[in-house]
Specification:
alpha+beta; 7-stranded mixed β-barrel; 20 helices; about 70% helix
Length: about 675
C-alpha cells in the first residue's frame, strides 16, 4: 500500500465526517486561541507595569492554568466521541484489507491535519483578538487605552508545546481504542444491542445522600470561614450526586412510573416513559456534564460580575473615609492625642482641607454565639457549619457622644447595641452576655460606624459601653486564655483634591507617623490606608477576576455547546431507527414525531432545571463567602445571579434550536 494513500485517505475521511469533525476542530481552535490570549495578556509589559499589575498577573496566571487543564479534558472528550462514532467505518476498512496498523497511520495523518489547521487558525485568531481582549481588560480596569499590538513569541511556543502534547495523547488514546476492539465490534460500531437498564437502588440512594450533603452544607453553614473551608467539599458532593442522580436515580424513578399500570398504559405515557428509560441510560453522563458545566458558568459569571460591580460598596465598607489611620498601641490619652495631632498636621501640611474627622478607640474581636451569649473564642470558628461567628466592635460612650455630638450616659452593666441589616442572625432581647460580662442593652436604629463591616465575614454587632474602664475590663475578659486583641485608636477623615493628591497626603501622614515612632516618646505603631490607593488595587484584583470570569464562562459555555451538539447527533442516529420501528408497529408519523420531540425537550432542559436548583442551594454559601470580601449587598448578588440565569437560559435555548435542526435532519 503506497504511503501517499494515507494522507489522501485521511483528508477524505475528515471531509466525509465533517458533521462531527468540524465542531471538534472549532473547539481546538477556540481553546488554542483562548490559551494564547491569556498567556499574551500575562506577559504584556503594558499590563504588568501598570498599578496593580502584580495582582493582575497572579489572577491571569490562575486563569491560564484552568484553561490548560480544561483544554485537555475538552479535546479528549470530543476526540473520544468521534472515535466511538467512527468504529463502524474502521471496521469496514478492516474487512477491506486494512489492518489496525494501517488504520493507525490514517489516524496519524488525520491528527496532523487537525493539529496544523487548529494551531495556525488558533494562533492567528489569538493574535487578532488579543488586542481586543487587552482593550476590554483595560476598560474593565478603568485604565487609559493604550495602542500598539503585542505579539508574544513565548506564548506561541508554550501554546505549541501544550497542544502538541494534547494532540499526541489523543492520538495514543484513539490507537488504544482501535487496538483493543475486535473487527466485529468495529463493524457494529454504535449499533450494538441494548439491554434494559437495571435499577441501581444503592447508587440512587448514594446520589440523594451526596446531593443532600452538599445542599446541607450550603444552607446550614453559618459563618464565612466555614463556608470557604467547606465550599470545595460541597462542590464535590454536588458533582458526585448529580452524576448519580442522572445515571441511577433517573432510572429508578422511570421504572417506578412504568410500574404504575394506570399511568404507564396510556398512549402519551407509554412511548415517552419507555423511550426516556433507554435515553437516560445512554446519555446520563452527558446530561450530568451539561448540568455541572452550566452551574460552573453561572457561578463563575455571577460571582465575578457581582465582585466587580460591588467594588465601590466594598471600599465604602472597608474604607469609609479618604484617609483611615489605625494606631495599635495608643494605650494612654496622651499617646492618642499625640497621634491625632501628628496625623492632622501632616494632612494640613499638604495644603489639603480636612473634613468629616472621626477619632475613637475601638475594641474589635470575634466571638462564638449561643443564643444571647457570646464567647470570645475565634479559633472555634472553623469547619463547624452550625457555629455562628459574631464580630463585636466596642466603643465607649464618650467616643459615641463625640461621633454623634450627643450626651448619652450609661450606668454600670448598661450598653447600646446596633446590628446592621446584613447581620441575618440579628440579636433580639434586652440583655446579652459578652465574654462572661452581662449587659442590659438598648437597641439602636443607626450607628455612625455602620460602614465598617466585619473583616471576617461574620455577623457584626456594635456595642457602646460605659467608659474606658469597662472597655479595659472587656478586653481582659476576651483575652483570658485566648490571646485576644487590644483596642485600636482609629483616626479617619475626608479630603478635598484629586485621587493623586489624596494618595500623596496619605504617604505624608504615614511618613510623619513613622518619624514619630522612631524618635518620639508618644509614638505608636500605626497603619495608614488611603481609599483612592486601595481603589486602584481593588479594581486590579476584581476587574481581573471579572475578566477571567467572562473568559472562563465563555470556555465553559463552549464546552456545554459541544456536549449538547454531540448528544443531539448521537440521539439523532438512535432515534432514526426508533422512528422507523414505531411506525411499523402502528403509530402515525405525527404521533412518533410528537413523542420523540417531547422526550428530547424534557431531557434537554432537565440539566438546565437541575443547574438552577444547584445555584439556588449554593446561593447562601456563596453569599457568606462574599462577606469575606466585605461585600454585604445581597440584592446586588441576587440581581447578578438572576441576570446570569436569564442570559444563560436564552443562550441555552438558542443552542437547542440550532442543534435540534441537526437532530431532525438526521432523523428524517
Amino acid at each position: 500500500m503506497r504511503n501517499g494513500l494515507y494522507p489522501r485517505l485521511a483528508a477524505v475521511n475528515l471531509k466525509k465526517n465533517r458533521q462531527t469533525w468540524l465542531p471538534y476542530l472549532f473547539t481546538c481552535i477556540g481553546t488554542i486561541m483562548m490559551f494564547y490570549i491569556m498567556l499574551t495578556l500575562l506577559s504584556d509589559p503594558a499590563l504588568t507595569s501598570m498599578s496593580g499589575g502584580t495582582l493582575l498577573s497572579t489572577t491571569l496566571s490562575f486563569g491560564s492554568i484552568i484553561i490548560a487543564i480544561f483544554s485537555v479534558i475538552l479535546v479528549f472528550y470530543a476526540d473520544s466521541f468521534i472515535i466511538k462514532q467512527r468504529k463502524r467505518e474502521f471496521g469496514l476498512y478492516n474487512i477491506l484489507g486494512m489492518n489496525k496498523r494501517h488504520i493507525g497511520r490514517v489516524l496519524l495523518w488525520e491528527t496532523l491535519y487537525t493539529a496544523l489547521i487548529a494551531f495556525v487558525s488558533g494562533i492567528a485568531l489569538g493574535i487578532l483578538f488579543s488586542k481586543l481582549m487587552q482593550l476590554l481588560l483595560l476598560r474593565i480596569l478603568r485604565f487609559d487605552i493604550r495602542f500598539g499590538l503585542y505579539v508574544s513569541p513565548s506564548a506561541i511556543g508554550i501554546t505549541a508545546l501544550l497542544f502538541a502534547g494534547i494532540f499526541f495523547l489523543t492520538l495514543l488514546n484513539s490507537l488504544r481504542i482501535i487496538h483493543l476492539s475486535k473487527p466485529v465490534e468495529l463493524l457494529h460500531g454504535t449499533q450494538e444491542g441494548e439491554r434494559e437498564p437495571k435499577s441501581k437502588w444503592i447508587l440512587a440512594v448514594f446520589g440523594v445522600l451526596f446531593l443532600g450533603a452538599g445542599y446541607t452544607m450550603a444552607i446550614m453553614t453559618k459563618s464565612a470561614a466555614a463556608a470557604i473551608s467547606l465550599f470545595f467539599i460541597a462542590v464535590i458532593c454536588v458533582i458526585i450526586g448529580t452524576y448519580l442522580l442522572f445515571t441511577a436515580f433517573s432510572i429508578v424513578f422511570l421504572k417506578r412510573l412504568r410500574a404504575n399500570k394506570g399511568y404507564y398504559y396510556k398512549t402519551k405515557h407509554f412511548a415517552t416513559v419507555s423511550g426516556m428509560l433507554y435515553r437516560m441510560k445512554k446519555n446520563a453522563g452527558g446530561l450530568a456534564s451539561i448540568c455541572i458545566l452550566s452551574t460552573m458558568v453561572l457561578v463563575t459569571v455571577s460571582t465575578t460580575v457581582c465582585l466587580y460591580m460591588g467594588v465601590d460598596d466594598m471600599l465604602d465598607n472597608m474604607y469609609p473615609s479618604d484617609i483611615n489611620v489605625s494606631c495599635y498601641d495608643a494605650e494612654t490619652a496622651d499617646q492618642r492625642q499625640a497621634a491625632k495631632q501628628t496625623v492632622l498636621d501632616a494632612a494640613n501640611g499638604q495644603n489639603r482641607t480636612v473634613r468629616d474627622e472621626q477619632a475613637y478607640q475601638l475594641l474589635d474581636f470575634v466571638t462564638v454565639r449561643s443564643d444571647n451569649s457570646f464567647t470570645a473564642n475565634g479559633s472555634a470558628v472553623g469547619n463547624d457549619i452550625m457555629t455562628v461567628a459574631s464580630e463585636f466592635k466596642v466603643i465607649t460612650a464618650a467616643d459615641y457622644n463625640t461621633l454623634l455630638g450627643g450626651n448619652v450616659t450609661l450606668q454600670d452593666g448598661e450598653g447600646l447595641l446596633y446590628t446592621p441589616n446584613y447581620t441575618k442572625n440579628a440579636f433580639s432581647g434586652d440583655s446579652l452576655t459578652l465574654c462572661g460580662r452581662p449587659y442590659r442593652v438598648t437597641m439602636l436604629t443607626s450607628f455612625p460606624l455602620e460602614a465598617s463591616v466585619s473583616n471576617f465575614g461574620c455577623e457584626t454587632y456594635y456595642l457602646v459601653v460605659r467608659d474606658a474602664g469597662e472597655l479595659a475590663a472587656l478586653r481582659e475578659a476576651q483575652t483570658a486564655g485566648n490571646g485576644g486583641s487590644a483596642p485600636v485608636y482609629i483616626i479617619s477623615f475626608n479630603l478635598d483634591g484629586t485621587d493623586e493628591e489624596k494618595i500623596d497626603c496619605s504617604n505624608a501622614v504615614a511618613s510623619a507617623l513613622s518619624d514619630d515612632q522612631q524618635g518620639g516618646a508618644q509614638a505608636t505603631d500605626s497603619r495608614v490606608a488611603c481609599r483612592a490607593q486601595q481603589y486602584q488595587e481593588f479594581v486590579s484584583v476584581y476587574g481581573g477576576l471579572f475578566f477571567l470570569g467572562l473568559f472562563l464562562g465563555f470556555l465553559f459555555l463552549m464546552a456545554t455547546v459541544l456536549i449538547i451538539y454531540y448528544k443531539q447527533v448521537t440521539e439523532g442516529y438512535d432515534d432514526r431507527e426508533r422512528f422507523r420501528i414505531m411506525q411499523n408497529v402502528g403509530m402515525t408519523k405525527s404521533e412518533v414525531k410528537s413523542t420523540i420531540h417531547s422526550q428530547v425537550l424534557i431531557v434537554f432542559f432537565l440539566p438546565l432545571a437541575a443547574c438552577i436548583v444547584h445555584l439556588g442551594f449554593a446561593f447562601p454559601m456563596i453569599r457568606r463567602i462574599l462577606q469575606m470580601f466585605s461585600l454585604t449587598n445581597v440584592g446586588l448578588f441576587a440581581g447578578c445571579t438572576l441576570c446570569a440565569i436569564a442570559v444563560f437560559a436564552v443562550l441555552y435555548t438558542l443552542v437547542y434550536v440550532l442543534t435540534a435542526k441537526t437532530y431532525y435532519r438526521i432523523v428524517s
